[in-house]
Write a structure and sequence with these properties.
- The structure is a single chain.
- The chain contains 10 helices and 12 strands.
- It is globular.
- It has about 325 residues and is of the alpha/beta class.
- Helix 5 crosses helix 6.
Length: about 325
């Protein structure tokens, strides 16, 4: 089944998505862990940064900033007047809509909950799985509170460690039920530990087809065969922290992509930067939003056997479209 995709400026068709960055953050508050560079809230700078992706032919950005990461992250935080902790703050949503209008990019917004230690344990204790799912469903079918902008994906929802905490489990089960009710895809956060398999187990126990799930940050897990295991289960593999420009880090990501392609899983690969800190921006010495479609594409051409324009299109156009559009 093919579906339209909700963006900050309304619904678009799968064909309108074009070249897509499937895991990014435009406005985000990570000060809890990154005091020096954990706040992205400069609207003018984000517009300038996205211009590089637009110049490369980019058409769509998926913003996976979930509820806990939006408080205080909008350029005008005073507009975050809603106290509903189950949903994005409206100031963040409206800022993204303005960025979308200025740049011409489709921006797909995520709903759901991030991971410990960002989760509000008391809030989770007061809401059962179905109540949490209902808030996500409302974000998808009606719009984020105070706006008419609807979520187009669930995520990123995650685990902080090598296990799933009680609150994280409730978050995943709610995400699964919201997915089954609406059909939108799920994108997870599974960094550093090989927890993606456990996440798929949990989602599958609720009836989710792994082909509707992207497991994020597989390139941060240095366990041989892990990314291949995720692909074999039918999920999309997020090679989506392509912001570190050290030679060894890039070589590792290139090797993962080569492994997946040679094993016949090119249609499972998702490439993105996960810009979420000020140091990730091009203006501050990072790769910004243009690294994947620029220098990294050149590295793929040098390193991946058989690499050509068609393979890059599969990574950056076809695969994100299939995830978002339920194709």
């Amino acid at each position: 089944m093919t579906r339209t995709i909700q963006t900050a400026r309304g619904a678009c068709t799968p064909q309108e998505l074009g070249p897509t960055l499937p895991h990014e953050h435009l406005f985000c508050n990570l000060l809890q862990e990154h005091r020096a560079e954990g706040l992205l809230n400069d609207e003018r700078l984000i517009i300038e940064e996205l211009a590089r992706f637009v110049a490369q032919g980019g058409r769509t950005v998926v913003d996976l900033t979930t509820a806990e990461l939006t408080r205080g992250a909008s350029p005008t935080a005073s507009s975050d007047r809603w106290s509903d902790e189950g949903s994005r703050q409206p100031g963040n949503v409206e800022a993204i809509r303005r960025v979308s209008e200025v740049t011409g990019l489709n921006v797909v917004l995520g709903t759901g909950h991030y991971r410990d230690p960002y989760l509000d344990r008391q809030w989770f204790d007061r809401h059962d799985v179905d109540a949490i799912a209902e808030r996500m469903i409302a974000d998808i079918e009606v719009g984020f509170p105070g706006t008419d902008v609807r979520a187009g994906i669930i995520g990123e929802i995650g685990c902080d460690a090598w296990f799933t905490s009680a609150a994280e489990e409730r978050s995943f089960r709610a995400a699964a039920r919201a997915h089954l009710a609406t059909g939108v895809a799920i994108h997870t956060h599974a960094a550093h530990w090989p927890v993606g398999g456990l996440q798929l187990d949990l989602l599958e126990s609720e009836g989710v087809d792994p082909s509707r799930v992207a497991v994020g940050h597989c390139d941060l897990v240095r366990v041989p065969g892990y990314a291949l295991e995720i692909a074999e289960r039918g999920a999309f593999v997020g090679i989506d922290t392509i912001f570190v420009q050290r030679e060894s880090e890039l070589a590792w990501r290139l090797s993962l992509i080569t492994e997946l392609v040679e094993a016949g899983f090119a249609d499972r690969v998702l490439l993105s930067h996960d810009v979420c800190l000020t140091g990730d921006l091009h203006a501050n010495g990072g790769g910004g939003f243009g690294f994947v479609h620029g220098a990294f594409r050149d590295l793929l051409a040098e390193s991946v056997p058989g690499f050509d324009d068609e393979l890059f299109r599969r990574f950056t156009v076809d695969n994100p479209r299939r995830l978002l559009a339920q194709e």
